[in-house]
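Supplementary Text 2. Reproducibility record for the structural model of the 366-residue chain.

All settings were left at their defaults, and a single model was retained for analysis rather than an ensemble. We include the record here because the model underlies the residue-level annotations in Supplementary Table 4.
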Amino acid sequence: MTPTLLRTFQALALSALGMLLTGCSKAPAASPAVAQKAVAGITVKTAVAQEGPMPRYLRLTGEITAAQNAAVAADTTGKVMETPVERGSVVKAGDVLVQLDSRTAALNLAEAEANVVQAKSKLDLAESEVKRNTPLLQMKAVSETDFARIKADRDGAAANLAAMQARRDMTKKTLDDSTIRAPFDGTVAERFVATGEYVMADSKVARVIDLQHLRLLVNVSEPSVGLIRVGQTVEFSVSPYPGEVFTGIVKFIGAAVRAESRDLQVEAEVINTDGRLRPGLFAEARLALPDQTATTIPASAVRADGANQKVWVVQSGQLNERLVEVGETEKDRIEIRRGVQKGESVVLAPGPDAADGVPVTVAPQS
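Retained model, structure tokens:
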């Protein structure tokens, strides 16, 4: 091999070796262990927080009571003969609750009426004697002493008749009392006696409650006493009927604040036409006060998360999660007392994809 060819061969070898070394020195492209996933945006509908009038209420607790609740007493003595009513019976004023043995009272009344007739006859005779002797007195045919005796007999007969009539009326009352009647329209809550029992004048025989006319008794704290007026409407709810609102009208306001509890008792009249409400029910009530201006948003924008209330505000194309303090609700709007300002856009009906920092696209208003 000539020197020229040898040098050419060496140059080619060195070039090939350099290319080989250069290829080996390049590191392979690194594959990421976890590919970063881009956050996907969501499309939302929004509404603007506005200021407007919102109702204000005085929150109260109370109890349903009956306007008329009577433990009917016998007011006489006697043996129970009949008990035509049972617990739950609906009665009208005058309906028979309990019938006592009235035979003795009836006989006594018959005797008393006979005594009245006899006394009236004696009075009539005495009156005729006075009339007959009056002209004789003028003619001096009868002495003044005898005429005074005749008049005294007439006055005594009149007094005796009055006594007999009073005794007859008392006997008649005893006979009437043997039939114990309902004092007003209502429902029998309890019957305390049974046939064959003997009752005294103060014995309770039945309890009658008027379920058509009830009262809501609430206690108003001293600072709120000035807000109460006769004629105001009170709304209230009871646990047996969740979601239902009943109403009453303030009729009676206590005369003085109670010293031990520093509150005032107020009663509202409740018309219980369908009879569903019952005395003794606990009630959560509210008394309407003048409206006040407040920040409001659609109620659908608020999502409950346990004890917390949340909304999502759109800011710079992203969601901003807010904890809010809510107030009163009026129709489909809810008051926001803290957490959202007037003019901010809140997401309506936020779904499970709503989260802090998620990019959003606001759908056009329909």
